[in-house]
């Protein structure tokens, strides 16, 4: 389990230095870039009325503008740190709430709680706006493989690796290092994902999956690729990075599609995407 050590370990993003202990929250999911990409993919799928409602709640901002807000405020709200991930041990084959998300203090519980607040039109707009910011962020978080798994290594923070000649760690690598190394702009990634979406025939199944399934997808990718294919030398090879590229793009795609569906259900007039 990560618990305290996860909360007190800071990992510098893409191609940064080795993680050092500090009283800081854990790092961003795929950096601000990844969260913006997820939010933009979702925004482009929203109905006009739902997109307008998100802007109203956010005082004129788009969901892309607040995609990293939940990370930005973690130093002031340390109690929210467990809401960004779920500890499903790598060897486990299913999600068990009593074991993996006690008192709903994990990303699965946080998505459910914040979506319920967002959907409740009797709540003040200020409260619902904050819930919207959390939902935008946490749907992204749960799609990062190392936010849905644990291997007694602080979610990969304690696995020190070398990438492109520089020291980093496994969590930071998957948060931002790999994505940034591909040299694609946010707009490039969004365009590629939306082109892919236009050809997919499984979107209904992707949208319809439960949040627990989203987390288990991440867990299984961590088990079957992130750790399984990790070079024994812990020097990340070009082959590993290239094999990770379609996995990362698929996680961003699914996060964007599911975020749009979640917001439509919470805010849309018809209650469907």
CATH architecture: Orthogonal Bundle
What percent of residues are in strands? 5-15%
The helix content is: 40-55%
Q: Which fold name corresponds to the CATH topology? A: P1 Nuclease
**3D shape:** globular
Mean pLDDT: 89
Order of helices and strands: HEEHHHHHHEEHHHHEH
Radius of gyration, in Å, reads 18 Å
Calculate the terminal CA-CA distance, rounded to whole Å. Answer: 36 Å
Strand order of the largest sheet: 4-3-5
Question: What's the total number of strands?
Answer: 5
Name of the level-1 CATH class:
Mainly Alpha
Major β-sheet, in short? 3 strands, mixed
Number of helices in the DSSP assignment? 12
Structural domains: how many? 1
Uncertain residue ranges: 3-29
- Class by alpha and beta content: mainly alpha
Specify the CATH homologous superfamily. Answer: P1 Nuclease
